[in-house]
Write a structure and sequence with these properties.
The protein is mainly alpha-helical and 208 residues long. It binds heme C (HEC) (3 copies). One heme C binds next to helix 7 and helix 8.
Length: 208
């Protein structure tokens, strides 16, 4: 700061003096805005940021995750911390817990229904979405989903069960529609690890 001022005194042109001052004021303002935004985000409950301890490998105690009631004694004294129970769960290349592998390896065994009196009916066929611009095509695997979701979780409310019958776009997914009903909330987020969905190489290189 002092250094700058002494340059002005040394007779730099008026024009550049004004410019320098503008830059100073603007950068101070930007600094203020960033610090303020940072503070706001830091205070918000974790899940409302679209983050969960599992999405970035963050170590967040239950009492601070914005989901559990920190005034409930059980949260502090009885429940096992996820960072401990899920320490050895396999993760994908972005460090997010890969729940499909967790299920395959038998590390968890979800109940099919409340009383355990129903069974899952997995189906094994893929849908390939090809309207992906210059990105690789998207493979939607029914198997990985129907091992723990029933058909009615998706059909017909989220997706009409017809290939090409739903105008899915990336923007809508990020806004929480279509795949985004789950991805970004309970499944790996659409903003990371594009390749887990966009996994089918294109035949043509696409426009770039
Ligand atoms: C949860 C799965 C999923 C993830 C993760 C994902 N996408 Fe997509 N993406 C889709 C689907 C589904 C479509 C729609 C394809 C269609 O309609 O044929 C799509 C479409 C697109 C398109 C085409 C244009 C558009 O707006 O629809 C682009 C570009 C794209 N994605 C980029 C990305 C990038 C970049 C990432 C990572 C930051 C990403 N996607 C992550 C599922 C995903
Ligand atoms: C996680 C969501 C999800 C679940 C659960 C799900 N599906 Fe689908 N299904 C889709 C998507 C996405 C499509 C493709 C829609 C598109 O192309 O626009 C699809 C397409 C279909 C189609 C159309 C195929 C074609 O070639 O036209 C049928 C049939 C279908 N699903 C049956 C089922 C059945 C049966 C179940 C349960 C065993 C089931 N789905 C569970 C998401 C799901
Ligand atoms: C009803 C909820 C739901 C919807 C809707 C949904 N998914 Fe998923 N999806 C899941 C869950 C749960 C997992 C496993 C969680 C994880 O690994 O993070 C998963 C896992 C996946 C995987 C990983 C499969 C593997 O073998 O590793 C892909 C790819 C995927 N979803 C693509 C999609 C695409 C593309 C769409 C939209 C066309 C979609 N999903 C819509 C719930 C959903």
């Amino acid at each position: 700061m002092f250094f700058q001022v002494s340059i002005f005194r040394a007779g730099v042109k008026i024009n550049s003096k004004i410019c320098l001052w503008r830059i100073w004021v603007m950068s101070l303002f930007a600094l203020f805005v960033f610090t303020w935004a940072g503070a706001v985000f830091a205070n918000e409950a974790l899940w409302s940021r679209g983050l969960h301890f599992q999405t970035e490998g963050e170590v967040i105690p239950l009492a601070e995750d914005g989901i559990h009631d920190p005034t409930n004694q059980a949260v502090v004294e009885v429940l096992q911390e996820p960072v401990e129970s899920m320490a050895d769960f396999p993760r994908d290349e972005k460090g997010i817990i890969d729940w499909v592998k967790v299920l395959d390896q038998g590390l968890i065994e979800p109940r099919e229904s409340l009383y355990g009196d129903k069974e899952m009916y997995p189906v094994d066929f893929d849908i390939i979405f090809t309207n992906t611009g210059s990105m690789p095509h998207v493979r939607f695997p029914h198997l990985a989903h129907t091992e723990w979701l029933s058909c009615s979780n998706c059909h017909p409310a989220i997706f009409l069960p017809q290939k090409g019958g739903n105008p899915v776009t990336m923007a809508q997914i990020i806004e929480g529609k279509y795949c985004g009903v789950c991805h970004g909330k309970v499944a790996f987020p659409p903003t990371m690890n594009c390749g887990r969905c966009h996994s089918v190489p294109r035949k043509s290189p696409g426009l770039r």
